[in-house]
Structures are given as structure tokens and as C-alpha cells.
Amino acid sequence: MKKELPCRSDCPITFSLDVVGDKWSLIVLRDLIFARKRYFQEFLGSPEKIASNILASRLKLLEKAGLVTRAADAVNARRVIYAPTAKALDLLPVMLEMLLWGTKYHAKANAPEPFVRRAATDRAGLIADLRAQLEPKLALR
Amino acid sequence: MKKELPCRSDCPITFSLDVVGDKWSLIVLRDLIFARKRYFQEFLGSPEKIASNILASRLKLLEKAGLVTRAADAVNARRVIYAPTAKALDLLPVMLEMLLWGTKYHAKANAPEPFVRRAATDRAGLIADLRAQLEPKLALR
After folding, report:
1. What domains sit in chain A, N to C, each tagged with a CATH number?
2. Residue A1 CA: distances (Å) to CA of A57, A58, A66, A84, B72
3. How many CB atoms lie within 10 A of CB A4?
4. ipTM for this model
5. Is residue B129 within 8 Å of residue A42, measured between CB atoms?
6. Do A12 and B87 count as a contact with CB atoms less than 8 A apart?
7. Which residues, 6 or more positions from B2, have their beta carbon under 8 angstroms from its beta carbon?
8. Which of A54, A76, B41, B47 is paired with B54 by a 20 to 30 Å CA distance?
């Protein structure tokens, strides 16, 4: 697979799209960050029904891009546990803006209303709270 | 071409990715919104070197998704002019956050420094200014 995170230009928007500009990467990060999923099987259970080969490929690319860590689970060393990195948490603003845009334009959007309201009115506070919950766990890696 | 903007789930992030989750859509919107490009040939000239068949396909999908309008040019009716819609301008926050993330993580990111600084410190003001410049032109369509 010749997917070496090419840089098509030095435009920072293009750079972001080179890393997460596809239909799946930000869904996997959503599951890691918002739903706190950590195991391969858990990602397969999301409503988007990602195929296991696509999931495996995405997780590898995300690890290579420095957005996901992969480690042996502390409880069962034969099980792999995934976690988002600080670089992935820095995509929170992008994801929250996508959440707001999708909520505005998708009639059946189903994100919890208090969460959407907070993303719209207190984005900085919401991001700070999510970071406070997630970052101490990153530090262990 | 069976690309009917499928909805993989009712998650609003997924909805946004179903519409603009690819390597090119937001680059075309960047050219329309920030660089004010309006003609097919102009998009071909961007540093990412989009292929003309991909550009044609993207413009069709963006039009179908209500993000781009396509009209006969007022000056030369045989020439097609493209413009972003209000729905596309509502993606400004997503694009600016991608700009900030890309600027942080791409060593060679080349967005103008005053623009990046303003996106980071006065995002609402920057968006209001961009809207004020772009929206009166949308109203003509």
C-alpha cells in the first residue's frame, strides 16, 4: 500500500486533508475521543459499520501520522489497546465544527442536544473539559 | 457514477464527512472562498494540481450537495462560473480549524501569518469579514 502521507502542497488545509481527509479517519477518532472506544472490536460496532480491513488500514495510517497509539492492554497483554494522542485531541475543534455543521444540515442528526448546545456556545470550555478527561490517560503512554 | 451522498449514520460528524470527507472537496471550496476562484481553469492552476476529471466530478458533487452554484458567466454566456453557497460558507469554521491544525503540525505550512494569527485569536471577526465580502455576491444568484 503506497499511502505515505504525501504532501500535495504547503497549504495547511491541504496538509490536514492529506492526514484526515477521508471518510473514516475522523470517525475512528470520534470513537476514540467521544465514545472512549479502545479496542478493535469496539470500532466495528459503530453504526457506520466500518469493514475490518478498512479499520485495520485506517488505524495503521493514524498511528503512522501520530494520531493514535497502539499498545498491549495492561489487563490482557495479548489484546491491543488504542488511544488518541495529543495531536489527535488537537483535532477536537475541527470535529466539533463538523458536528455543528452536520447538525445544522442533516435533518436527522442525532448528537445529544446539550452537547451540541455547549459546542455552539462554550466550545472552549467543552474542549478544556474533554482534554482534562482524556489527557491524564495519554500521559501514561 | 453511484455517489448519491449516502448517509452512513445519523451522527452529524459522519454526515459532514459524507459530504466533504475526501481529499478534494474542501480544496475546491478553499479556492472558491479564500482565493475567490470562479472558473474551471482557475481551479486547475492550484498547487495541488487536481486532475480535470476529478475536478469536474467534485464540482458536480458539490453542486448536488448544495455547496456550489453553477451559472452562465454574465460576461461570456458560454463560460461557466462557479460560486460558493451560504451552506458552503457555513464550512468556514471547519476550514479555519483545519488551517490552524495544519499550521501547527506541518513544518512548511505557508498560510499568511497575519491570516493565521487572526484565525487563532479573532475567528468570529475573521468569519464575519469573509461573509461580508462574499455574501452580497451570493444574493445575486
Report:
1. 12-139 (1.10.10.10)
2. 9, 12, 18, 23, 43
3. 8
4. 0.92
5. no
6. no
7. none
8. A54
